[in-house]
């Protein structure tokens, strides 16, 4: 493992970092500064200045100016620049991945995995830059042709959450860029350093290609900058990732100006384990889904709905595996789980544990705060499993922590009803070798989530698919498939290549 100071040096992170940038130019924001604190050991890693509303306005102005030139560049040429960004990320993968782990607290392997996702989306976007297809339609009129084309929107604002501090930005930015948009990123105030590192990596690529200011911009700041973006008519699409509370506030503001937003919000994801499930795949999927990233993924497994006939067996297996889990420094590869993001998150975990106890939940694997050597940051908790006799309110909420609920079912319809009976609709899975059960789960009578899997858990996703969920998850789709269409405006074109103009309803004028 590389020394953290070498990692910071390699990424151009200094003790004090300007938190605003329009590309090549970085400047000190006028709204004070924040310390980036590592949940790994409680150390202050570095300080970042925060954007004021004046800084924000300057960034928007630069992006508006940049849009004209950027959209005029042919899409495959924009793709070629994104390809270079992907190459630069490959070069910095270990440093950036390590910083993600150190600033956010996810394991070293997950930090590297997150940067790999960025590289993958660059590759995807490069291919996409030659495939921004529109349809052609047969016109009902003689000598007419109809088709549709996709044009860039303008400025895409990106608000991101702490748990995927860099990948979510790249999912949005790389697709937005090949589509001909310019973008402005407001990262989580809990993880500003990884954002600065990304901006520096991209800046060098843009500079070497002679791309001017305003194509890729960064505004570090708290939620007030996000609120400015939501209210700003100049943000043509606002893609916001975070809690449902944030999404509702953003949707209301953007809706009031009839703007466009793409929302990626909370999840409350369940796995159904049927009597014929293969435990060799189900158990690792459950445990990885529940404790990966310390339960701080939007796709983390929060509920397991188990058939009554195998309930006791599954409990025994889970107890065995949870008994082997090691919690500690996420940069140590021997550890399975690192810390929560901060003390506030620990308090939320403790509050939820209290509510579970008061509601009569029984802990199969005990919760608790870890203290002593190696846990000085106060952010390390025990992953726990609670048996619930019914799906109470606390189970229906997303608690962003490694708390797993166990519920029993008798017939599959009941299990599907339980799985769907939460406000969120992001990810879901069934473990079964029975084709009828699998197909029912995937049918319109099955899971109501944006992601529904068979014999693979809820956690994570491949960039090739459209990512997102229904209900309080916000309805947005990002990344693969045809999610790019959210970043463009569709235009329907009709061309008359004949010498007369057939009017509707046969109306004629004497000329
Ligand atoms: P959060 O809502 O506290 O903050 C997310 C971002 O929104 C931050 O940048 C924050 O500054 C900004 N923000 C907060 N309030 C705002 C407002 N009123 N207007 C504009 N911006 C505002 O979320 P978090 O704690 O950083 O992240 C955890 C949450 O994110 C979880 O609910 C998780 O499920 C969700 N998440 C969802 C996805 C997804 O793709 N569905 C991905 C990652 C995280």
UniProtKB/TrEMBL annotation:
This is aldehyde dehydrogenase (NAD(+)). The active site is at residue 264. Its EC number is 1.2.1.3. CDD domains: ALDH_F7_AASADH. Homotetramer. InterPro entries: Ald_DH/histidinol_DH, Ald_DH_C, Ald_DH_CS_GLU, Ald_DH_N, Aldehyde_DH_dom, ALDH7A1-like. GO terms for molecular function: aldehyde dehydrogenase (NAD+) activity. Residues 32-492 form the Aldehyde dehydrogenase domain. SUPFAM superfamilies: ALDH-like (SSF53720). Pfam families: Aldedh. Coiled coil: none annotated. The keyword Glycosyltransferase does not apply. It comes from Dyadobacter jejuensis.
């Amino acid at each position: 493992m590389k020394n953290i100071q070498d990692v910071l040096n390699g990424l151009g992170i200094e003790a004090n970092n300007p938190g605003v940038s329009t590309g090549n130019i970085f400047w000190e924001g006028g709204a004070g500064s924040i310390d980036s604190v590592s949940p790994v050991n409680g150390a202050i890693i570095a300080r970042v200045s925060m954007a004021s509303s004046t800084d924000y306005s300057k960034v928007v102005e630069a992006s508006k100016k940049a849009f004209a030139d950027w959209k005029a560049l042919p899409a495959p040429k924009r793709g070629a620049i994104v390809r270079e960004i992907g190459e630069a990320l490959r070069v910095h993968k270990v440093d950036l991945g390590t910083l993600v782990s150190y600033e956010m607290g996810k394991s070293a392997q997950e930090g590297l995995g997150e940067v790999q996702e960025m590289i993958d989306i660059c590759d995807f976007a490069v291919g996409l830059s030659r495939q921004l297809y529109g349809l052609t339609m047969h016109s009902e009129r003689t000598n007419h042709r109809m088709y549709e084309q996709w044009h860039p929107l303008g400025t895409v604002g990106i608000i991101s959450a702490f748990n995927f501090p860099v990948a979510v930005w790249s999912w949005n930015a790389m697709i937005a860029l090949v589509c001909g948009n310019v973008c402005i990123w407001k990262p989580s105030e809990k993880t500003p350093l990884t954002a600065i590192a990304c901006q520096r990596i991209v800046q060098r690529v843009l500079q070497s290609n002679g791309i001017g200011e305003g194509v890729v911009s960064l505004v570090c700041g708290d939620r007030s900058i996000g609120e400015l973006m939501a209210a700003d008519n100049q943000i043509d699409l606002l893609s916001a990732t975070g809690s449902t509370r944030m999404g509702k506030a953003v949707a209301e503001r953007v809706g009031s100006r009839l703007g466009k937003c793409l929302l990626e919000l909370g999840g409350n994801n369940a796995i159904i384990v049927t009597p014929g499930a293969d435990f060799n795949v189900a158990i690792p999927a459950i445990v990885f889904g529940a404790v990966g990233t310390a339960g701080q993924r939007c796709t983390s497994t929060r509920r397991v709905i188990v058939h009554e006939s195998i309930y006791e067996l599954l409990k025994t297996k889970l107890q065995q595996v949870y008994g082997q889990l090691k919690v500690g420094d996420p940069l140590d590869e021997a550890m399975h789980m690192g810390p929560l993001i901060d003390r506030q998150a620990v308090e939320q975990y403790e509050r939820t544990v209290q509510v579970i106890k008061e509601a009569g939940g029984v802990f199969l694997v005990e919760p608790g705060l870890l203290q002593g050597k190696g846990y000085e940051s106060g952010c390390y908790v025990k992953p726990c499993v609670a048996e619930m006799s019914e799906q109470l309110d606390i189970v229906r909420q997303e608690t962003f922590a490694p708390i797993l609920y166990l519920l029993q079912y008798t017939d599959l319809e009941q299990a599907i009803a339980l799985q769907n009976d939460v406000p969120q609709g992001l990810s879901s899975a069934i473990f079964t070798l029975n084709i009828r059960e699998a197909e029912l789960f995937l049918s319109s009578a099955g899971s109501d989530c944006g992601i529904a899997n068979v014999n693979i858990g809820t956690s994570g996703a491949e960039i090739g698919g459209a990512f997102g969920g229904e209900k309080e998850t916000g309805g947005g789709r990002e990344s693969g498939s045809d999610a790019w269409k959210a970043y463009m405006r569709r235009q329907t074109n009709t061309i008359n290549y004949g010498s007369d103009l057939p009017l509707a309803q046969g109306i004629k004028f004497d000329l």
